[in-house]
Design a protein that fits this description.
elongated, alpha/beta, 6-stranded mixed sheet, 12 helices, two-stranded antiparallel ribbon, 3 domains, single chain
Amino acid sequence: MIFAIASDLLPSRVALEAEILVLRQQINVLRRANPRRLRFVSIDRLILGGVCRLLPKMYGALAIVRPETVIRWHRAGFRSYWRWKSKRRCGRPAVTVEIRQLIRQVSGANQLWGAPRIHGELLKLGIDVGQTRAAKYMVRRRVPPSQGWRTFLRNHADGIAAMDLFVVPTISFRLLYGLPIIGHGRRQLLWVGVTAHPTAEWIANQLTEACGWEQIPRYLIRDRDGAYGEIFIRRVRPIGIRDRPTSPRSPWQNEYAERLIGSIRRECLDHIVVFGERHLRHVLLSDMDYYNGTRTHLSLNKDAPISRAVEAAGRILCRAILGGLHHQYVRA
């Protein structure tokens, strides 16, 4: 007992040196500290936390910081050390940023696809990524997958056609009537008819010529013009076409046909004087070929209704269309 009392009264030289080091470091902090708030850098935390961890008695020598703060520093250093210690040095390769973005893009565009389907598509693209990694980077959804209105309308666009009549004056001030028929799927101009006397029977024959018997549309959108009579309705219904007239004075309900007629006028008829029915038919058929196979459309991502292949090699050639009113550029 006497020896223990003496050892407590006479601390070892190591303990004294440690206490001196702790006190000296606190003095250094006070010398460079802001009077409002003390700042501790990494070396301060390392010295105070390390010495107090090795010699717990040194907690009593702390004057400018609480022991709980030193313990928190030590735990933070412990986490940083083991984070560095357990840093991955081998294993599966990391997924690149481009592949992550591709997985999110595919997952967002195809809401009905799961991880196996997306993983299969990645394998077909030559991307060797595990299914669990693909599921990790998929877009998270809070609601069950469902198609949007855009997808719903596009699913039904292939079975819809629209038609409308427009008037064209000739050089002798006669009035001719044009009848364009357009498909909603690819905005393709199916047929253009020309006549001086539009009757219901003639319109029905033009519809048959445009659609044939193999690609008949499911629905037909038209206005309530008097030219569509009972003969037209009796001809349309037996072949499986559902006639859908628009509301009175509502041209916006047949917007595709109205927009097509506006394009025909602005890009063709406003720059040509029509001589007669034969001339108008030739001009409209030439414009139909240009419209379907050459002219690009914003709604089709700058593609033509009859898709054009991208030509990257060869010399660029220019071919005049409609007497030089438009031009087609191809590579040869």
